[in-house]
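User: I'm putting together notes for a lab meeting next week and I want to include a structural view of one of the chains we've been expressing. I don't have a solved structure, so I'd like a prediction I can at least talk through. The sequence is below, exactly as it appears in our construct file.
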Amino acid sequence: MSLSSLVGTSQNFNEEFLRRSLKTILTYAEEDLELRETTFPDQVQDLVFNLHMILSDTVKMKEHQEDPEMLIDLMY
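Assistant: Thanks for the context. Below is the predicted structure for the 76-residue chain, given as structure tokens.
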């Protein structure tokens, strides 16, 4: 299931829990001593950033689902 589908269709979705989970993943990646000298922490950071943006945009789209002009603006 995609993140946008989860946010868009779930009635009991909690955005804050997902944001905290993503932050926890990022913290673990940054603090792992074995992986610190690799590109893995940077890749995780990029992924988490992209997921945050998808989450924010999807939440905004859900809030404005009755406004077609705003939806078009949010899509682009």
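A couple of points you could mention at the meeting. Residues 3-75 form one domain. The chain has one domain: 3-75.

User: Perfect, that's what I needed.
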